[in-house]
Design a protein that fits this description.
Blueprint (H helix, E strand, L loop, with lengths): L2 E5 L12 E7 L5 E6 L9 H7 L4 H8 L18 E6 L3 E6 L8 E7 L4 E7 L1 H9 L1 H12 L11 H7 L2
Helix pairs in contact: 1-2
GO molecular function: sequence-specific DNA binding
Protein name: Transposase IS4
Organism: Popillia japonica
């Protein structure tokens, strides 16, 4: 069984694959700050967070509440006014929502075109660029987990979570 690590903006639906789903909060450099293992229907009553923030944002709110107040420089702000969703066709469809960033300014990035067999310039919305800048930490953590995974197989359900904690 593997461990599925998902950044918070990705997951809105329940993980239907094999393994375990982990909501993770990472620094931009790829260091894990906090995490929560997805449990599906939870015995612990989290309805206050779920009803107020929704299933996708509630794990993030719970992780932010556990951060020390004076040791880390961070700001947490939630606003339901002015939400914009952007869908961009890269190698696959990328859909991102934000209350902070918009479409403009539109930047040009270089992508390889299969049809033209060369590198072309493609317009990229600001929201997608900001997402790429700040989601690099989760991608870096996933890369490190794949590269340095402990390769001891076990039949216990908790083994992959245990090795994930000590990576």
């Amino acid at each position: 069984m593997g461990l599925q690590t998902t950044a918070l903006p990705h997951g809105v639906t329940a993980w239907g694959g094999f393994g375990y789903k982990v909501w993770s909060m990472n620094t931009k450099e790829g260091y894990l700050v906090n995490f929560e293992v997805y449990q599906g229907k939870c015995i612990v009553d989290n309805n206050a967070h779920d009803s107020k923030f929704g299933k996708a944002s509630a794990p993030f709110v719970r992780m932010v509440e556990n951060l020390p107040e004076k040791k880390l420089p961070y700001q947490f702000y939630v606003d339901n006014v002015g939400i914009i969703f952007v869908r961009w066709l890269d190698n696959s469809v990328v859909t991102v929502g934000s209350t902070l960033h918009g479409v403009h300014p539109i930047n040009n990035v270089k992508r390889y075109s299969q049809a033209e067999k060369k590198i072309i310039s493609v317009a990229r919305p600001n929201l997608i660029g900001q997402y790429n800048n700040y989601m690099g930490g989760t991608d870096q953590m996933d890369q490190n987990i794949g590269k340095y995974r402990i390769s001891i197989r076990g039949k216990k359900w908790w083994w992959c979570i245990f090795t994930f904690l000590y990576l």
